[in-house]
Description:
This protein is mostly helical. The chain has helices spanning 3-13, 16-34, 40-51, 56-81, 91-101, 105-138, 143-159, 165-178, 205-222, 225-230, 242-264, 269-284, 296-312, 314-320, 326-337, 344-349, 351-379, 387-406, 410-427, 433-455, 467-495, and strands spanning 182-183, 190-191. A hairpin with a 6-residue loop joins strand 1 and strand 2 (190-191).
Amino acid sequence: MGMDTFMEGLLTSLEPINIMWIIIGGFLGTIVGMLPGLGPATAVAVLIPVTFGMEPVSALILMAAIYYGAMYGGSRSSILLNTPGDGSAIAATFDGYPMAQKGQAGQAMAISAVASFIGGVIAVIGFILLAKPLADFALKFGPAEYFLLMLLTLSAIVSLSMGKMVKGFISMLLGLLLSTVGIDTQSGVYRFTFGIPHLSEGIDFLIVIIGIYAIGEVLYNFLTIDEIKKEKKKVGKIWFSKKQWKRSKWPILRSGPLGFIIGVLPGAGGSIASMISYTTEKQISKKPEEFGEGAVEGLAAPESANNAASVGAMIPLLTMGIPGSGTTAVMLGALIMLGIRPGPLLFENDPEMVWTLVNSMFIGNIALIIINILLVGLLVKILDTPAKVLYPIILLLAFIGTYTLSYSAIDFFLLLIFGYFGLLMKVMDFPIAPLVLAIIVGADMEQNFRMAILSSNGSLGVFFATPIAIGLIVLTLLSLFYPLIVKKIQKRKLSKP
């Protein structure tokens, strides 16, 4: 990287028109990220016609700002309503919503904005220093390594269900089962579609997320709506305390680089990054029993990781022309329409554009922390809304978000089914996250497993053939057994006189 091109990129990103696109994109992304079902991919897709006629570099800046803006916004509805905007915001429900229930909604949103900012800045620095070597590293991941990475994610999320691991395992199996619905892309066989053509494309994981979290939450609260009316929730302070910052700073600094590296891997994305960072922090925490009850570091870590992952996903897109997530796949199509050919030659032929984008991401993160902190005071007022007004609004947003996915009324039935399913899981105390994550990664996991087996003529040795694969197996075993080993050691210490 030449300093001249870096400075040229900085000056271009500071032009008023580009600053305007950064702010517009970041604000739109934050708003869209809050709405269930309308993730960043949908927002970028809807705004593609707006980019026609724009300078390519401005179009790229706008789309990137929407992407990482949605990462900021996705956690707002997770914290306030226990309804994640998309898959990467699920981990924010684990401790963000309990914090809101304790009257700490303002602190939760403030710490999530700061964590997202720091994660984003770490990732931008990582992009500047490590774009090329990390792109080369990502190319070493074959089907076997991707399968093992997804296995690691699932094992990590099941290990979170301490005290109810059997239920977590059942929940994960149900998610994997649901991910098999639709046409098998390798054999063309229809699986579990029951003669319904709409199911041939499978069940969109966003419908499951909206149904289980949003509809399930509304139904659950409907059972106790009169009690909620009597007990008004406190909003609390809108800034976090020194003690909360002390607990959060190291998880944020650890999760930023972790999320960035996972984001670089094509197909991994913010969902896996946030889940792995959450499980990692819980496993190394001195107070793991507080996770799930409103531990501030349990919110800060995944927020840092998912924002860093959104920046990391730009590396395979720009250096190899490989989209690292659904949003970057949409962006790839838009870039090609604008005459930009992502790939190794982009850095050689148009370095100014690349470094303008990188600098715009840095400026965008500064703009977004200001926007999000300003919005804290406004958003916490949502908690003051009477339940009988708030829950119909959530239902309306859930149905609108679902309808925009494929414009089919059949999705409404699926939404209601998963809503009741979510209620049942909540009443029976089944962990929901393993099911949702299994649906997100299930189809890719299956395809990668089969491709790995086919490439090795049926030999399972392919899963032990590379140092990366062995490393992932070791991490999977550690994530499963580490909590049990630690518990046993603690029990032994306590039993000693």
